[in-house]
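Sorry to interrupt, but I need a hand with the structure work. Could you add the entry underneath, on a fresh line?
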Amino acid sequence: MNKIRIIGLVILVIGIIIQFTLENDATDFISGLLIGGGIGLIITGKVGKSPK
């Protein structure tokens, strides 16, 4: 696994922990962003467009 996918996994775990420990509308939004971003990084494995 490369660094970006490991960071994505860490972000995903943090989002899941926030989802289950804190119960608030703002934390639901933040945890949703973290979970979605973590899944995106795990699947793609890159942050931006690669230069041509």
User: Anything to note?
Assistant: The two ends are 24 Å apart (CA to CA). Residues 25-44 form the longest helix (20 residues). The chain has a mean pLDDT of 87. The chain has two helices and no strands.
